[in-house]
Each structure stands twice: as structure tokens, then as C-alpha cells.
Amino acid sequence: MAFYTPLRYPGGKGKLAYYLKGIIKHNSLLDCHYIEPFAGGAGVALELLMQEYVRKITINDYDPAIYSFWHSILNNSEEFCDKIESTKVSMDNWYKQKEILSSNNYDDALTLGFAAFFMNRTNRSGILNAGVIGGKAQAGKWKLDARFNKQELIKRITKIASYKDRIIIENNDTLDLLINLSLKNHENTLMYLDPPYYVKGQELYRNFYEHQDHVDIKNQLIKMPKLHWVATYDNTKEIKEIYKNQTLIDFDLQYSAQSKRVGSEVIIFSKNLEVPDLELGKKQDAKKAA
Question: Using CB atoms within 10 A of its CB, is residue 237 exposed (0-12), middle (13-18) or buried (19+)?
Fold first, then answer.
């Protein structure tokens, strides 16, 4: 299995890349502009780009540290890779990078972006506010460098940088991003939204949503009938109520966040998308809005 992103992210959404490819082909969207408003590790976006399913991608993340990471590897990739080579993966540096990450200092994107990368690769499940792999005493079976293969990570970053002219990076609130997009021509566009989990978002992400935030996103999406979009959420009655007039499919997805487990999720489609005849996880049921 090929890995395109240097970041680890809870949720396992990279496993849905095949399904997004099916949506693109089934809806004649090859060579479109692909947008991820909650990009995080952007694993799906990078796979679609590098396998030439889409012409360009927009990676958006509201977290200044994650945005700084993407900005740095696209604009200062050599310096970033030098920092990977020269930085010892140790508890002393873990504490140092943790302090830098807490600062959210925009004035030094390279330093902040590297701190986000270092913590992502050394923390459990890649969660920035989680504990270090192996614990602070490093007494566990796995140590903090268990997911820090420097040469492999440098290889991924160098490859991403070679696609710089086809990658747009943004640091916007998703609602603002949608409003701005509504003013432009977005017919040949596919957006994949993977918002913070409704139930456990606060535990997993530095930026999480309240109920009204999810409602606001949905209300803006329905104001953009020409935009092709897909969204995935944890499977909750609240999300199903918010999106009750859309096409929804329940499915199971194995993901890792502290421990591997299977979670029930829901995928939601804009009304202008046809659902491909592909198995999605362990498909449970589908329903079409009246």
C-alpha cells in the first residue's frame, strides 16, 4: 500500500480514496479541482493528485500549525528536510517541540510547521494533543521514534514539493472557505468534507465543532447547488437529522485513535452526485431523500 502523506491522522479516511475515485469516474469529474476543507493529513487529496484523477487540489486547514506544515514543505522543502535529518528524535526534543506547538507562532512557519510534524509522528495515533508513543518514561514496547523513518518521510515530502504548482494551501475557517467559493465558478469541482467528529471531536482535534457549526456548514452547502460534494461523519442521530434531505449511506470503517477499532460512520452526497455502485466498508443501508 502506497503512502502519500507524511502526516498520521485519526479516522483512517485514506481508506476511502478508492471510493472517491469511483465517485469521480462515475460522475465524469476526472481532471477536476478537488478541495479538502478539513485537510489534516490530506492523504486522499494527494493520492488523487499523484494518480492523476484530479488536475489540482486545495488543502485547507484552520489549525495554524497544520497550515504551517503544508506551507513549509511546499515553500521551504529543503530546509524542512534538513531539519528532519538534523533533529534527534528524543524526549528532550519532544518537550521542546510541544512547547513550540503550544505557541502557535505564525511568524516562523517553518519552526511551527516542523513542531506539528514532529508531534504528529511521535504522539499516539498522530493526535497533536495526545501523549507520546511509549509514554514519557519510554518504558513501553514502542518508543517515540517508532513512526519516524526519516528517509521515507523526506522522500514523501520531496515528492509532494514537486507538485507545488498544482497544490493550493489555505488557512480558512471552513464556513468562510465555502462562502468565498460560492462567489466563483465551481462546477468542475469535487469537495470532500471530513469535519471533526460530532461526538469525540474535542478529544481528537485542536479545533472542534459545536452543534451549530455543523448546521452552518450544511446550510451553506445547500446554497451551492452546482458544487459537487461528499461528507463523512461519525454516525449520530444529530448528523442524520441535520442532513436528512440528502442521500446518506451508513458504513463501518476501521480506524486507529489510541486503539484500533471499527466505527460506524455515514457518508453524505450532494444532490447533483450519482452514487457509484461500490462497496463502502461494510455497507449497512442506504436511503434516498424524498
Answer: exposed
